[in-house]
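pasting for ref
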Amino acid sequence: MNRRSAVFAGVAGVAGLAGIAVAVPLLTPSSGKAAPAAMVPPFPTASSEASPEASSGTRAPRTLRVMPLGASTTAGVGSSDFGGYRLPLGRLVAARPGYAIDFVGSRAQGPMEDNQHEGHPGYTVGRIRAGVDRWIEAANPDVVLLHIGLNNLNRGGDPDQAADEAGELVDRIFTLRPGITVVMQGLVPSTPGSKDQDISGAIAAYNRNLKRIETREQGAGRHFRFVKAPWLTPADRADATTPAELADGLHPNDTGYAKVADAFFEAMEQAHSDGWFGK
């Protein structure tokens, strides 16, 4: 499917987000109209024209197939254009040499041309585990960016059990793609939850357990890295000098997503430096 015709408008079913409505414009190659300015690719994609290096005979950077995998944060809920962290992350990678990325997944959302992902609003870790075999098989990613577990904790789930399920998911990804790189970002520690509750304690326990997954996976020789999520300012703590970085009780806003992208980018840079992406 052409990326410009890929459409996703399914976030209205997000648990705990009643009242959110989403409208994503449908673009087709046969419309005869120029794409709106918002659809102009903000960063180079795998389908972009050849770079000057490639035309001069210099080897072009390797393009990695990167699957953003998770729930509504992966889909970009809370950002102004549903670019989420993928939009700023794509720009960060495009500004550095060494490798390029091509986002892959069965869904597409955001103002950029390269807007594919595997973000499923409302999904718990178990539901993501139930679909991961077919998603990985279809997309053949080189890198998976994981952000999972918030729906478990927001619904009162046990953080230890959620982390165990996350570990099982990670193991399954490596079974499906043994040479893959997996970067898992923890949950934002300042996330209050969407049901007038304080889930910060559960998030802290969950994140500690995710860090243990890194010890286990790296001990087995797998390319896995856990990265701490940034602390983002909730709306009720914002003021004139400290603007809000969370759009609601669960999701970052544009400023918050930029910080989430920074965390993923630093982990990818380290993976590249360690030679995890190959030649």
